[in-house]
Amino acid sequence: MADSSARFAAIAQAVVDLQPRKTAQLVQDALADGIPPAEILLNGLARGMNRVGELFAEKEFFVPEVLMASRTMEAGFELLRPLLATGDAGRLGRVVLGVVQGDIHDIGKNIVKVLLEAAGFEVIDLGRDVPVQEFVRSVRERQPQVVGLSSLMTTTMPLMAVVIEELKKQGLREKVRVVVGGAPVTADYARSIGADGYAPDAPTAVREIRNLLP
Question: 3-state class of 202 per DSSP?
Fold first, then answer.
């Protein structure tokens, strides 16, 4: 276990250090030694991205570093993807993800995407700074079972409520479940805006989405 912990820490640090080749090699070595892919993802790659998010919040990292960190994580995840897949992509359902308009902080959303895909969901990633009508259009055209809304700023959080209200106006709300998350979001806030679920972190988001589906 101690050896696994050291390996996870090294993978996480390689992500933080923005070293895609090293990250991929460390992931490959961990796989060769029999460490389960899901543990490598959660305890290594996702842990590294969580640290990147903290550095961004502390203004030690900026957008270019965050984008590079995402690419670094992806280099490791590409090795895990085929091993994590437990069936055809989308077999568990379709999920639309996006960061609400005015917010460009998408690290958490990116980790949720990776974990959902690994679990067997089809993910439609709308990206960051997504207008309300883009969420509505995606629900109408792509017919997902779940929409995931993310915000890391108190100033953009109200847009989550606007998305939900617009889905109601368009007659789409009853056709989709809405899960919200992000640093300033709370379970109480999620209930107050009529969301179906709340997730404080990426692994919880996957469990919450699973639980909301029949």
Answer: helix
User: What's the pTM?
Assistant: 0.77
Tell me the helices (H) and strands (E) count for the chain, helix number first: 10, 5
Map out the domains of the chain as residue ranges.
2-84, 94-212
Query: In terms of CATH architecture, what is 94-212?
Result: 3-Layer(aba) Sandwich (3.40)
Taking only the tens place, the pLDDT of each residue in 94-138 is 999 999 999 988 888 988 888 888 788 999 999 999 999 999 999
pLDDT one-digit tens code per residue, 144-165? 999 999 998 899 999 999 999 9
178 membership: H or E segment, kind and range? strand 177-181
Cβ within 8 Å of residue 111, ≥6 positions away = 46, 49, 50, 202
Q: How many CB atoms lie within 10 A of CB 132?
A: 17
Question: Do 2-84 and 94-212 agree at the fold level?
Answer: no
CA–CA gap between residue 166 and residue 159 (Å, rounded):
10
Contacts for 24 with CB less than 8 Å, ≥ 6 apart: 75, 76, 78, 79
Residue pair 12/48 in contact by the 8 Å Cβ criterion = yes
Question: Check: CATH 1.10.1240.10 for 2-84?
Answer: yes
